[in-house]
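Saturday, quiet lab. Running sequence design on the structure tokens for the scaffold JK sent over.
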């Protein structure tokens, strides 16, 4: 099945207002910027986003965030995104912060059909006990807090129950992909992209290099095409447009 679409706008044409999105990327690595820009161009709003972070340096999800298009974020890192922090503290944005490993496993579990799992991460903290601010009231108070989660003892160790995540759509970026949707990711872009792709009911992948079926060694495939419904081939200019978050100089 040829899953290639012609344009980014075509790829995201059926994403409605209020949709939930799993979005890949780790920092600035592996972020599906072209698909995100297409969502911005379409004017889609009220989105619930699941992603490690919410963009940085006016790129990635920061484009949608700054435009007020995101209503809720499930993630593990705010970082240096000042607009993210401002909206959160002002009560304009609902934010569920969870441990990074738990976020990764919740996405994987959702994609694997596992409704929930137990983990020791967060036991004895507000992650398990509840009370984490999900939304502030804009005056310094908490308008909505996280509920307590189930905690069970296994062989003398306590574990907290975390639910798998499924979303309406997933947006990911791969280094290589074929027309059947088999994908290969580069280095740290592999941290969250395959997991986000698994969690989406409809997964859309932008690929830096599009190849024909059979050109990717099956043993080199990081994500099988069964998880991908649409593939967008980037232009050489789009593929090369990569920002650097922190520049360092070594003598």
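Result came back. Writing it out in full:
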């Amino acid at each position: 099945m040829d899953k290639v679409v012609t344009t980014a706008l075509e790829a995201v044409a059926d994403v409605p207002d209020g949709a939930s999105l799993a979005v890949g990327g780790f920092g600035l690595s592996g972020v599906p910027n072209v698909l995100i820009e297409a969502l911005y161009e379409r004017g889609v709003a009220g989105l619930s986003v699941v992603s490690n972070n919410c963009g940085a340096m006016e790129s990635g999800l920061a484009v949608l965030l700054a435009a007020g298009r995101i209503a809720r974020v499930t993630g593990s890192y705010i970082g240096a995104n000042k607009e993210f922090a401002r909206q959160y503290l002002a009560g304009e944005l609902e934010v569920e912060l969870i441990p990074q490993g738990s976020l990764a496993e919740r996405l994987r579990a959702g994609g694997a059909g596992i409704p929930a799992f137990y983990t020791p991460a967060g036991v004895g903290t507000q992650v398990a006990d509840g009370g984490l601010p999900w939304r502030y009231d804009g005056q310094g108070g908490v308008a909505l807090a996280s509920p307590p989660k189930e905690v069970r003892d296994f062989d003398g160790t306590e574990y907290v129950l975390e639910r798998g995540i499924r979303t309406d759509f997933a947006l990911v970026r791969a280094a290589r992909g074929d027309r059947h949707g088999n994908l290969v990711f580069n280095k740290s872009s592999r941290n969250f992209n395959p997991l986000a792709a698994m969690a989406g009911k409809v997964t859309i992948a932008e690929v830096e290099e599009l190849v024909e079926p059979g050109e990717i060694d099956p043993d080199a495939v990081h994500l099988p095409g069964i998880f991908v419904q649409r593939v967008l081939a980037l232009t050489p200019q789009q593929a090369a447009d990569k920002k650097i978050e922190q520049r360092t100089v070594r003598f």
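Notes for JK: The CA atoms of residues 160 and 195 lie 21 Å apart. The longest helix spans residues 100-111. Ask whether to fix the surface positions before the next round.
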